[in-house]
């Protein structure tokens, strides 16, 4: 046991670093609008509420995992994000399983890149399901590789992990389409007339495994989507999923320019993409089928998300992950016995820069507010710290009261529904002050409340949500360079505002 511990000490060190990065100050950042929705729906489920599948809020797995967490260890900002931070740590398990196709040294570097990737780390510390879908889909790929190597039990795991991926988020359908496309490219490279009949024959010989994987897929997805068969109408979830999200793509609900992801990928994932492209370029004619598959899949992911109508930063994690094994292989070579001093110097510099960028994005500039002049483009319409501080003032009113002490209406309802989940809240513009101590409303309701409340109240206007869209304005090359180096933006921070009324003496 001691010998194994000593042998694998780099992995234990990597695990410790990953745990620290994923858990430290996990509850410090304000809850994003989406995070508050996910947390509150899960809290309702944990406290006797019900859940039914709605493609607007993605698959059921997040809510079930989150509700179970609340039941087991309580509900607060830290525990709400905890399961998905641990999922981010679990990417090390995916890297560990890649030791066979990529080698021990490369697998460790793959684990390191999973750990320090700015986008993956940020959205691992964020209450969304993207990293959960990433991990389950990655585990399904690892199981498929085991199937190809002759493992019989891997068929069952393939069905389980694929089912969990599809029960997490509709990106799984995109992943499946890209998988088929990458497999088609491999068939073309190796000769379609030879590969396709061989593949059909191979699957026919393993029909039991195919049925086993399919059966486990159904056993995982159908009970989750129907919530233990309490909503049997949702057994045909793929139709609802694809129909809804194709409509969102068509109307471009969250639009952006076609190049939305490109500067962000360059800004944050320069090491991963650079190392991966060098590896593919060096081994262009000697790429292993796994390497070629990942490269084609990765390029297809970037192209696909450029095409799809919704442009949001968390979809970056689905574009970067296939390049990480290739980048890990290159870094293992660079820092191995065959690496040259100049390549180590360059790679070491980019590695240090990636660590710095990741730490700043996750722990220094993790909030957006109009009151600061630096911003990360990784963040998207973020709740401001000023609003969160005001929302948490209401914690003084937790308890049993004869009437609500707080009221809220308008755009602040989210994330207040999460922050004020323990309170008796008047979710409307009050008609009389009564026992109210704190009121939050939209600016359009300010004058009405001023007239009703009178002299006994103070008021403050604060930003609710802030954003910076880098494609607004006409930035010069100098502006881009200055931003990449300093995070100083070239356009104003946009924001929506709310009004906070406090009874005099309340803070």
How is this structure best summarized?
The chain is α/β, with parallel strands linked by helices. It is 60% helix and 6% strand.
Overview of this structure, please?
The protein is α/β, with parallel strands linked by helices and 507 residues long. Among the domains are: 253-355; 382-503, no CATH class. Helix content is 60%, strand content 6%. Helix 11 runs parallel beside helix 14. The longest helix is centred in the C-terminal third of the chain and has 24 residues, at 341-364. It is globular and about 80 Å long.
Question: What distinguishing features does this structure have?
Answer:
6% strand; 25 helices; globular; 6 strands; 6-stranded mixed sheet; 507 residues; alpha/beta
Number of helices in the DSSP assignment = 25
Biggest sheet strand order reads 1-5-6-4-2-3
Helix content: 55-70%
Instruction: Compute the separation of the termini in Å.
Output: 57 Å
Shape: globular
| Percentage beta strand | 5-15%
Mean pLDDT: 91
Q: How many strand elements? A: 6
Low-confidence stretches: none
Biggest β-sheet, characterized? 6 strands, mixed
Evaluate the radius of gyration: 25 Å
Structural class: alpha/beta
């Amino acid at each position: 046991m001691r010998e194994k511990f000593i042998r694998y000490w780099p992995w234990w060190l990597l695990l410790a670093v990953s745990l620290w990065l994923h858990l430290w100050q996990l509850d410090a950042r304000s809850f994003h609008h989406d995070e508050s929705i996910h947390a509150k729906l899960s809290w309702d489920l944990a406290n006797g509420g019900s859940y039914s599948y709605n493609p607007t809020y993605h698959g059921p797995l997040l809510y079930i995992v989150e509700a179970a967490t609340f039941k087991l260890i309580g509900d607060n900002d830290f525990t709400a994000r905890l399961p998905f931070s641990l999922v981010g740590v679990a990417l090390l398990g995916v890297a560990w399983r890649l030791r066979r196709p990529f080698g021990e040294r490369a697998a460790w570097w793959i684990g390191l890149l999973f750990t320090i990737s700015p986008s993956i780390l940020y959205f691992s510390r964020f209450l969304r399901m993207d990293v959960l879908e990433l991990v389950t889909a990655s585990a399904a790929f690892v199981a498929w590789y085991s199937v190809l190597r002759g493992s019989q039990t891997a068929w069952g795991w393939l069905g389980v992990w694929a089912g969990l991926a599809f029960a997490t988020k509709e990106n799984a359908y995109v992943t499946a389409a890209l998988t088929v496309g990458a497999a088609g490219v491999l068939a073309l490279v190796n000769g379609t007339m030879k590969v396709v009949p061989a593949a059909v024959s191979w699957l026919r010989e393993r029909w039991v495994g195919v049925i086993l994987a399919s059966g486990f897929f159904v056993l995982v997805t159908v009970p989750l989507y129907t919530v233990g068969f309490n909503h049997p109408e949702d057994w045909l979830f793929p139709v609802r999923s694809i129909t809804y999200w194709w409509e969102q793509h068509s109307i471009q609900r969250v639009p952006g320019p076609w190049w939305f992801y490109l500067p962000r990928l360059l800004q944050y994932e320069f090491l991963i993409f650079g190392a991966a492209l060098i590896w593919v370029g060096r081994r262009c004619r000697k790429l292993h089928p796994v390497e070629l598959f990942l490269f084609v899949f990765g390029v297809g992911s970037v192209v696909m998300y450029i095409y799809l109508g919704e442009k949001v930063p968390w979809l970056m994690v689905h574009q970067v992950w296939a390049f990480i094994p290739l980048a890990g292989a290159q870094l293992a070579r660079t820092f191995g016995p065959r690496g040259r001093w100049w390549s180590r110097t360059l790679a070491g510099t980019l590695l240090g820069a990636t660590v710095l960028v990741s730490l700043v994005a996750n722990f220094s500039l993790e909030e957006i507010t109009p009151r600061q002049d630096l911003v990360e483009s990784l963040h998207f319409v973020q709740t401001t710290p000023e609003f969160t501080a005001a929302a948490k003032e209401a914690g003084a009113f937790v308890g049993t009261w004869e009437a609500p002490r707080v009221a809220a209406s308008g755009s602040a309802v989210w994330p207040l529904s999460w922050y004020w989940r323990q309170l008796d809240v008047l979710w409307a513009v009050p008609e009389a002050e009564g026992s109210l101590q704190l009121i939050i409303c939209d600016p359009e309701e300010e004058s009405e409340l001023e007239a009703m409340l009178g002299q006994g109240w103070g008021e403050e206007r604060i930003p609710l949500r802030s954003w910076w869209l880098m494609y607004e304005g006409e930035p010069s090359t100098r502006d881009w360079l200055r931003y990449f180096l300093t995070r100083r933006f070239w356009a104003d921070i946009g924001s929506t505002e709310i009004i906070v009324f406090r009874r005099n003496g309340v803070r």
